[in-house]
Design a protein that fits this description.
The complex is a heterodimer of chains A (278) and B (295). Chain A is mostly helical and 278 residues long. Chain A has 14 helices and no strands. The mean pLDDT of chain A is 86. The chains are: A mainly alpha (278), B mainly alpha (295).
Amino acid sequence: MQIISAKEKAIQTIIYILLILCAMVMVLPFLWMLSASLKLDKDVFSFPVQWIPSHPRWANYQEIWTKIPLMTFVKNTVKLTIIVTLLQLFTSSFAAYAFAKLDFKGRNTLFLGYIATIAMPWQVYMVPQFVLMSKMGLNNTHTAIILLQAFSAFGVFMMKQFYTSIPSELCEAARVDGMTEYGIYCKIMLPLSKPALSTLTIFTFVNTWNDFLGPYIYLTRQELKTIQIGLRMFISQYSQEYGLIMASSVVTLIPVLIVFLSLQQYFVQGIATSGLKG
Amino acid sequence: MSSRKAIIKKNLVAYSFIAPNFIGFALFTLVPMIFAFILAFLDWDGSPYNPMHFVGFKNFVDLADDGQFTAAFRNTLVYTVQTVPFTLVTSLLLALLLNQKCKGRNFFRTVSFFPYVASMVAVTAVWNMLFNPGMGPVNELLRKLGVENPPGWSADKDWAMTTIVQFSVWKYMGYYMILYLAGLQGINPELYEAANLDGCNGWQRFWNVTVPQLSATTFFVVVMLVIQCFKVYDIVYMVTQGGPGTATLVMVYDIYNKAFVYSSFGAASAEAIVLFALVLGVTLVQFRGQHKLEA
């Protein structure tokens, strides 16, 4: 007996060592970022790494707001992210209700149209999409980014999967009671679909907040830029300002980390059940 | 009559649910998708004042002699062939570790997810500094460990691709770990008990129970990974800008250049169609494979 438990203990120890090693690989770059964001440029690369700066330079976090229009970038990104997420949640859950619970002409054909496009990466049609948006005079507008992000087939697909799992008898009973379809959607389906809506929220939020190529193609005017392309511009302009680059990187990470930590379980479930991302 | 009216009303109600999403979807996704196939057969510089010319398959034929395209095509495949197995193995190992009963398991799971949700611009910025060939801490450490000439990473044409692959594995393994974790939790524990009764050791249990039971998950992970690798752009742009030379130029990068730098929209769309063909091929393999696995 004692031999076995000793062996088990050894295995446990090895597992912990491996886990801590993995966690270090994952986290050390972030800690290094945090530590460098509080240093003078000349101290960023001093070796061995001084993880906790002896004289933390908090001024880095003040300077980034004046050196680049970071506040404008943040405002733009917050605005786009909120609008896209709300539109995505509303339009996909609305459409998904019809696909899951209503019987109508052309339902299967329309739904197949959605499914078929999931296999086509955005990168394949980004060029003609840009041509179309430009023709409509939407180049260098936030509307372009909103239209590009808000109507994904993924959202409809995910919500439909969820609504299908809700028993149709619930809707039938409400119909007998004289409720309209809009009423059923608002009063029965929406309250039941909180988990699916949360999953969609976090996916859309993270994707829109972190999106690079879309804004990079459409938004060339300084005052329209999002935080990702703004930060990237800053990095190429002031590539030697290591402390400031790291400080603004920390700022861009914080909102996503907050959303992620608070909705984490939905994120994990979303991946595990659908295995998809936008 | 009244029943016909009822049916029409029913249809209209349903369409009113779908319309807000479908109009946006049709206009900004479906139309551009169809337009992509047309644009690939046109010669056009993107200017509204210059006409589009129909040129047949010329754009596709030209790709064969286009050094940028051939480099991008080859690099995309090289990147995929290197990234897929590494991510697969590391995410499986990570999932096996995190599937063990131990304290702080949730903490470790959360942490392994950070790279995936973090913005690409921010994490490539820190990665570029860590792997700075001259003064980055990684090379400083290698020198301390006695490596006389540590790699030039993103600045060296022989190491640039490796740098990008390493970064991709680090960024994405947390995501695929979740898929494997779900797969592991779906394995019937009785299979392990049976294996124990047969006297299997841990290693044999892994090869005879875990690996075959995970084959559907692995298949799915490979397909997702391959498609994701075909679409790579951000990482390349932020770590190497496709260089040095064309050492890390990939297809989406080349499509971007052709359209938005050189204004040859036809050539860009032709290359996009080639990319689509690759993705479609993988998707079809997935369809067939899934039927086989389910059968």
